[in-house]
Fold this sequence. Notes:
2 copies of one chain form a homodimer.
Chain A: H1 2-7, E1 15-21, E2 27-33, H2 35-44, E3 48-51, E4 56-59, E5 68-75, E6 82-88, E7 103-106, E8 111-114, H3 122-125
Amino acid sequence: MQNLVEQLNFKNGLIPAVIADNESKMPLTLCYLNEEALRKSLNTGIIHLFRRSKGKLMKKGGTSGHTQKIEEVRVDCAENSLLIYVSQKVAACHNGFFSCYYRRYNIEEDRLEIEGEKVFDPDAVY
Amino acid sequence: MQNLVEQLNFKNGLIPAVIADNESKMPLTLCYLNEEALRKSLNTGIIHLFRRSKGKLMKKGGTSGHTQKIEEVRVDCAENSLLIYVSQKVAACHNGFFSCYYRRYNIEEDRLEIEGEKVFDPDAVY
Lengths: 126, 126
């Protein structure tokens, strides 16, 4: 995967990746990969990311078992970001929802509204 | 929109927004908004972004006319990014493709392959 790595524009060592559901095509989450996370993701076929808040490489779903199997990798026109379609186990969000984008912004009332149902109980998993 | 602005975690003044097609739900591009771009987007219903390479606020599609009408705004679980579903005029990518993610990575051959057809001729538009 040397060609890909050289082509991508890592910024401060990271590149953002939109993770989307391979079935519905809906975005699930946005994560950041460093070169090591990208190599590990492609070599294993499972999303690994660089968690900025913890400053380290992690397997997505490492604790919960809610892993993401890579189905397709796409690169944007400027080589500044990735789009990765995955098969998601159970749910992507640690709050129990399938997608991290489970809240819709109500513009008129200036507030967030929960959309969709909880798939699992976070207290029972973490 | 004061509540939303205060809730979001702008990093160095910016927040990333995944822009996705409201019809197919497929991601089209990733852009960055500062507070002013977010306010202008919500007030006008048309995506405005902060173009990092030019250091300024711009209307997406301002030159080409390929604007993005906001249909729905979603916020991720950590308030670190937005997902905005839009009605896309013509195409999102300045290279002539509907989505900026028009290249698929062929893992075995370590190269990018174009997927999908050109919607317009960039030389005729820009």
